[in-house]
Amino acid sequence: xxxxxxxxxxxxxxxxxxxxxxxxxxxxxxxxxxxxxxxxxxxxxxxxxxxxxxxxxxxxxxxxxxxxxxxxxxxxxxxxxxxxxxxxxxxxxxxxxxxxxxxxxxxxxxxxxxxxxxxxxxxxxxxxxxxxxxxxxxxxxxxxxxxxxxxxxxxxxxxxxxxxxxxxxxxxxxxxxxxxxxxxxxxxxxxxxxxxxxxxxxxxxxxxxxxxxxxxxxxxxxxxxxxxxxxxxxxxxxxxxxxxxxxxxxxxxxxxxxxxxxxxxxxxxxxxxxxxxxxxxxxxxxxxxxxxxxxxxxxxxxxxxxxxxxxxxxxxxxxxxxxxxxxxxxxxxxxxxxxxxxxxxxxxxxxxxxxxxxxxxxxxxxxxxx
Length: 370
Prior knowledge:
Layout: H1 3-30, E1 44-50, H2 54-65, E2 72-79, H3 85-95, E3 99-104, H4 114-124, E4 129-134, E5 137-139, H5 144-149, E6 158-160, E7 163-165, H6 172-193, E8 205-208, H7 209-214, H8 230-236, E9 242-244, E10 252-254, H9 260-271, H10 279-304, H11 309-334, H12 343-363
């Protein structure tokens, strides 16, 4: 057997892995029908940790204050800001009696660690049901709290929501950011529905306070500056205690990064926590990424040398069709239908982007969340 033949058969194995991943795992969300949950009148603490976010708070905090919900407080955490964040918080608190401020001063042991500030905010929260978002996030409706809190139950102590990014016209970078965010959401929603939750995003995430303290908070990964959302969920989430919420009224929306460099820095921070995931999650996610990379690398190589090019091309088109189907059904639930036409291009660029981050993280570490 020649080397080219070995490469071809290896390519077939990779294709099989990709088809299994998309047809079994990711269709868990793509074909999922939303369930109706009865609305609950439970008291909720909305927690927002902000570091130098004065302008964002001015723009986005009113959308939290104006939520149509009977009983909620807003816990604003000022994480050692050097701008006017605290003054903005104090102004909102003077006008709304359901706002509580936690002013965190930097200390040497936990300097620059968002988890320390969040822990103080969680301790200060009056209610057992906690709903998290960021200072630059805006709920798309006045029923965000109602939709997310409706998923809590006797067993369901964790609720994973969806947070997207605003659309910017004529921007390939913006499409790439929204594609990556969409793919991530499809993955963690699908795995949760499959019975293997592994992460959530802090821009739209809810859990019970006693879940936090039963796990000793962030102590098992306090040494890592990132991961206050995904690492914590990876630690405590199970099939029985985790629910997903993807009604359109439950979404939050953020302004995306405007430059490739700033997005690169943001994704570096997010990816640094991945090596601390549970072994089974790292294995499945790594297999997906590696098989993605190998699929395109081997496919392009075989096409260049024209080895069984008709079979290779057919498999490429078949895979693109499968991915398009998964994303088409998913975008009906989560939006961002405009990324569909650029799927192969966006996927290839994202693979290169992620490899670059992986290599860069090996040689350089980022220590602080802001």
